[in-house]
Each structure stands twice: as C-alpha cells, then as structure tokens.
Design a protein that fits this description.
The protein is 51% helix and 11% strand. By secondary structure, the protein is mainly α. A hairpin with a 2-residue loop joins strand 2 (68-73) and strand 3. The chain is globular and about 45 Å long.
C-alpha cells in the first residue's frame, strides 16, 4: 500500500487552500483512497468556505464537528467550513476527508472520531496550529483519565506503518469498521 502523501496540504498557505478548496479536498480524497485501499462512501463531495459565518459559533463545543456543518443527501455531501476556523483549515480538511470513508452509522461515534483525530494529529504534526488543536481536542473530547493512561499509547500505536503484506493499524481500523458496522 502506498504511503500517504500530504505534502501538497502541508506546504500550501491558508489563502491558497481557500482559493483551491475543492481541488485540494479532491486530492486529499484520492490520497486517502489509495492509502486505505477503500472508496469514499460519498459519490460527490462539495466543500464550501463560508465568510461571515454564524454557524461556527454553534460548533464551538462540538469537537466532532468543529468548524463545519455537513449536509448529506443520499450519497452527496456538502461540507461548509466556517471562516471562524480559517487557521485550522488544514486540520479540518484532513479530518473531513477521512470521515468520507467512515460508514454513515459511525460518523458521530466518539471512538471512531478519536482515532481519526489522532491520525490527523500524527499526519499534520508539522502544521502550525496542531498544538492548539491538540489542546482543544483533549479538553473537549477525551476524559482526563483516558488521556493520562492511554492517549500517548494510542498515538504510538497509530504511528506504526504497514508493510507490503500487512496494513498499518489505521488502515486495518478503516477496513474493520467498514466490514463490521453492526459490531461497533
């Protein structure tokens, strides 16, 4: 399985990302599709950056949907990104791209979202605002006891790469949840 290449996202400026939002998101979907060896559950995804957005205020305490509003109809998804979270756009885009591979029944599952958020942290560890994201996430999503005991272990586990014959833990996780929705 090919490694995940996110250099185009990491090297892009915020302004460039906003100007080319749909193209960058489609590139992310393609990279993740190759990395996971899975297809997106949506046949069409549109990403829209909202200026002068009031939606962002509603999402402040909802870390799972932080900075976005999703509208889903059948296999179509529209993601509205609030301008209030412009500095976190790389994080939000990657998180939302990963979520396009999660079965609908598990989109709001906190464990699934914890895994995705942890992978986003790992993938974007060079990004400028990842520390703020990490602090926000840990404050709102993860219980203190879990964080103290297990959070660093989860990060080390998910950082493991796959081999030619064996998927990485994250690749296995996505395959598993797609095949076993009823068990989760």
């Amino acid at each position: 399985m090919p490694p995940l290449n996110l250099e185009f996202l990491l090297n892009a400026s915020i302004g460039s990302i906003i100007s080319n939002l749909d193209k960058i998101f489609k590139n992310l979907l393609q990279e993740i599709k190759s990395y996971l060896n899975l297809v997106s559950i949506y046949s069409n995804v549109q990403v829209i950056f909202r200026r002068n957005d009031k939606v962002g205020d509603k999402q402040k305490n909802n870390i799972i949907n932080f900075g976005v509003e999703r509208i889903q109809k059948n296999k179509y998804l529209t993601i509205y990104i609030s301008n209030n979270y412009e500095k976190s756009i790389k994080i939000i885009l990657l998180r939302e791209a990963y979520k396009c591979f999660v079965p609908l029944e598990l989109q709001e599952n906190s464990v699934v979202n914890l895994f995705i958020d942890q992978k986003v942290e790992i993938d974007l560890h060079k990004s400028g605002f990842i520390e703020d994201w990490r602090d926000l996430r840990r404050k709102n999503l993860v219980s203190y006891d879990f964080m103290e005991a297990e959070f660093d272990r989860l990060e080390k586990f998910l950082k493991q790469g796959g081999t030619k014959n064996r998927p990485s833990p994250f690749q296995f996780f996505f395959s598993y949840i797609r095949e076993n929705v009823d068990l989760i």
